[in-house]
């Protein structure tokens, strides 16, 4: 994709989803040239940043930077912007802005200060059973919203502790929608290639069964 095409697509997506588009330079400055790493996955690295919005006010953000513009990364970027840009729920991470300039693809999320559920479960002392129950209920509510309350049903396809972020109150937010699959309201199932993380895959994948909203 050439730079003009990328900017045109970004403008169209931004208008459709009412999102602001940032330039590569703006996000490089916000992250001090991508210095503080928060985490990494198969498609890229997440950095902490500080963005000025609305005059002199500054907000802390998490910037997901795709490490290379391969075909699967481009597909993940478009999918994640489309999916998260149209959903709003207290147990889902919120997409604020993005960058789609030349060869650069970045997604800007709200910053959640308490890391991932995977990190939280490994800390000492261990979380209480009440805290674990409360987090599990929050995750279930987020999944219910995706499966039953969206105009297009959304199957995340990669629910795991590393993709659950915790806010300042240790409330869970489901993140990383790059592998998500969309279903129309009148659609009950669909066929797709296996996607997700080993150890967390639904058993239906191994039976070559269609995925449904009963899956994660």
UniProtKB/TrEMBL annotation:
Residues 32-216 form the Protein kinase domain. Its main location: membrane. Pfam families: Pkinase. InterPro entries: G-type_lectin_kinases/EP1-like, Kinase-like_dom_sf, Prot_kinase_dom, Protein_kinase_ATP_BS, Ser/Thr_kinase_AS. It comes from the Eukaryota. It catalyses: L-seryl-[protein] + ATP = O-phospho-L-seryl-[protein] + ADP + H(+); L-threonyl-[protein] + ATP = O-phospho-L-threonyl-[protein] + ADP + H(+). The keyword Hydrolase does not apply. Its EC number is 2.7.11.1. Keywords: ATP-binding, Disulfide bond, EGF-like domain, Glycoprotein, Kinase, Membrane, Nucleotide-binding, Receptor, Serine/threonine-protein kinase, Signal, Transferase, Transmembrane, Transmembrane helix. It is a single-pass type I membrane protein. Belongs to the protein kinase superfamily. This is non-specific serine/threonine protein kinase. It comes from Microthlaspi erraticum.
């Amino acid at each position: 994709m050439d730079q003009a095409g990328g900017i045109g697509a970004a403008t169209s997506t931004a208008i459709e989803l009412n999102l602001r588009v940032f330039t590569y330079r703006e996000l490089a400055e916000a992250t001090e040239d991508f210095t503080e790493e928060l985490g990494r996955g198969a498609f890229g690295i997440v950095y902490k940043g500080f963005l000025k919005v609305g005059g002199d006010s500054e907000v802390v953000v998490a910037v997901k930077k795709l490490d290379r513009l391969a075909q699967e990364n481009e597909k993940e970027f478009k999918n994640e912007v489309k999916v998260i840009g149209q959903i709003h729920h207290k147990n889902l991470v919120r997409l604020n802005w993005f960058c789609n300039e030349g060869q650069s693809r970045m997604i800007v999320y709200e910053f959640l200060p308490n890391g991932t559920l995977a990190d939280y479960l490994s800390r000492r002392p261990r979380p209480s059973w009440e805290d674990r129950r409360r987090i599990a209920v929050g995750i279930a509510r987020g999944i219910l919203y995706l499966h039953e309350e969206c105009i297009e049903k959304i199957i995340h396809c990669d629910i795991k502790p590393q993709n659950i972020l915790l806010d300042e109150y240790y409330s869970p937010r489901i993140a990383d929608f790059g592998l998500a699959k969309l279903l129309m309201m009148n659609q009950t199932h669909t066929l797709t290639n296996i996607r997700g993380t080993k150890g967390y895959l639904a058993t239906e994948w191994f039976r070559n069964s269609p995925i449904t909203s009963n899956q994660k």
